[in-house]
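Thread: Modeling a multi-component assembly for a lab meeting

Hi all, long-time lurker, first post. My supervisor asked me to bring a structural picture of a complex we are working on to next week's group meeting, and I have zero experience with this. I have the sequence lines for every component (540 residues in total). Could someone generate the structure of the whole assembly? Inputs are pasted exactly as I received them:
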Amino acid sequence: MRIVKSNRAQFKDNQITDESVFNEKRSLLKKLGFVGAGALLSTPAQADILDWFKSDEQKPATKTQTLRDLNFQTQDKSGVKLTPEDKVTSYNNFYEFGTDKKDPKAYADALTTDPWQVKINGLVDKPFKLEYDDLFSQFSLEERVYRLRCVEAWSMVIPWVGFPLASLLKRANVSSKAKYVGFKTLYRPDEMRGQTSRFIGGSIPFPYTEGLRLDEAMNPLAFLAVGLYGKNLPNQNGAPIRLVVPWKYGFKSIKSITEITLTDKQPDTTWNLSAPSEYGFYANVNPNVDHPRWSQASERLITDGGLFNQERIKTLPFNGYGEQVASLYKGMNLKRYF
Amino acid sequence: MTKQHLLWWVKAVIHLLALTPITLNYYWSITDQNGADPVKAIIHFTGIGALNLLIITLMVSLIAKYFKKAWFMQTRRLIGLYCFFYAATHVLNFWWFELNFQFTLFIEELVKRPYIWLGMSGFVILFVLAVTSPFFAKRKLGKNWQLVHNWIYPASLLVWIHFYWSRKADITEPLIYLLIILSLLWFKRDKIGRWLKPNTRT
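Re: Modeling a multi-component assembly
Sure thing. I ran the full set together rather than chain by chain. Output:
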């Protein structure tokens, strides 16, 4: 694997992991031979090096995916902690598997992620498809430590692995008519129990859809993740590929993507359809615009603390990424376009 | 075993059943074994616990009547008080762990969010019922005691709406609760009817 760059130097945010840890990880990778080999070998061979990201060749008969380790260091020296991996993978909103936060981990094993296909189509000159293996080999993978802010007023700090959404869109040669990017999740009721019953799936329409304006999608922060914590994505976190839009509430970061469509009209998005007064199309993190049922002024950072050891922090506009994205919304009334 | 003995044992079991889960949940939450977000976990646990105990309180008279065990009625006050205890910890936990004991924020949230003031008005009713539950209060209130304590019926609906409204999407569980509450109110329809139309009381 070739880590092309990390955002750890790019962002001054002290929410993200210290650079020294990143360097430590790089040296660890070097010792393991990944970085060095990656630089020397040609592209086809690089795909093999990326194999550690995928399940073993000899897969067990069950559909359960084997997640592979990278000896990732989870805590930095500045005292700002990443959310523990077991919390990132056990506390999820993924209504396809049930509405309880524990449901996705309990039921997502049923999902087959390999084979997988992502179609890129719509207003593009070169529509294409990505197969499962392509997700890990067609683009240079990077690590990004982003804060994920849920609309329910909690947040996590997660080291994602993936590639910028812009790299994928550039390959498709987006037509000049395109203004929006629509995303669609898998619809497979026999593996996703929430899609078979409105009682399990929380009565939202399936398949789950999301969307971004094209300039948002082209922003360097918009990211397609295929891994977290140096391992491939667990199913409950949106395997094999998901979107991460760190300046927006978590529900914009659609999981298990099967289709990316360029359009000239604003695409329908699931939460906007089911409760437009509560969940706008933009869903930018904004401490000044409350959700009708809870304040967005602050959030609880999910760390490894118990009840008396909670970290409650002020919510920042655009989740702290204003410097990188605020210009996208110049002149817009963010209270109206929430 | 005399009825007194039996009542003692039943009350002991009620204490145990009410206190064990809340103690365990606090232990798990403090030691970070209660899921990823211990604050949410404890707030939800005490809230749903209060609702469950409210429903059980409403059931006591029906059970006593159906099984013809008048002594069982004597457990109702205890269960009702535990309902208040759970509701009080629910409110306290919200104020403490969600709002960091900020008083102005607490008042602000109370006023701003309909689902919170609905829950809060349910809690105020439970509070009034709890402070009027000692025997001397009952003696003092006389006939009016029942009129005051019938407020449990509107409280059950207020608390239900609060619960329903707090949900993002999944409404299965609230609907099951609504079904139970409505059927309990239906069983008590005569009593509620008399309460609502006091002039026709004979």
